[in-house]
C-alpha cells in the first residue's frame, strides 16, 4: 500500500485517543490539545500541497515592517478545499470531524470553512481574541481544529488558550486587533484564567470552542509556522442575524443563500461526520 493510500485510510479511521472524560473536559476548559491526531507520514503527505496552495493564493505581499498587527500575525488563505482536491481530502476527513462531534457532544458536524494560517519567520503575535465574534451562529456548538504541519516548539508561537474563558462574556464584541490584545490580556490576568501554552509535536492538534479566548506568540524560528485550521459547527445549528459587519460578510461568504433562522445547507456546508 502506498503512503498516499495509508494517509487516506487514516483520515477515514476514527481517532482512538479521546479519554472517557474528553467531552466533559472540553466543556470545562474550552479547549483540548490531543497527541497523535494524525501520523507524521500523513502530515508529510498533505503539507507540501497545502504550502504550495498558500504560496499560490496568498495576496499579502507587503514587507512585514509595513503591515499592521493583524497582517504581521500570519498569511491567511481560506477554503483551500475548493481550490485543491487533495486538500479537500484532509478538510473533509471523517477522523477530524468525528473528534469535533465527540467533543461538542453532537451527533454530527457541518463544515463552516477552512483556513491556512502561516506565521512567517519574525512574524508577530496573534492578538488575544475569540473566533465566534465573526460567526453568526445560533449556539456555541462550534469549534476550530488547529493542526500544525511541523513540530511547533515555543519559539515558533504555538496557539495558547485561556482555560475556562469560554464562559466569560466580557470582550465578545472585540475583533482581533491591538485593542483586543490589550483589553483581553488584562481581563485574562484579572480573572486569573490560566494562560496555557505548550509545544506541539508533529501530528498533535488542538480543538477550541468558538468563545475560548486564545492568542499566539511571535515566530522566533527560522521557518514558517505552517498551520491548517478547520471550523466545524453542530449539524443542527442555525444562522442568526449578524451583529457586526464581519458576521454579515461571513454569512454571505461561508453560508451563501442561508437566511437567519435557517440551517446552513449550502454546498459549502456539508455534513462531515
UniProtKB/TrEMBL annotation:
It comes from the Bacteria. The keyword Oxidoreductase applies. InterPro entries: Phytyl_CoA_dOase-like. Keywords: Dioxygenase, Oxidoreductase. One of its GO terms (molecular function) is 2-oxoglutarate-dependent dioxygenase activity. This is Ectoine hydroxylase-related dioxygenase (Phytanoyl-CoA dioxygenase family). It comes from Kribbella shirazensis.
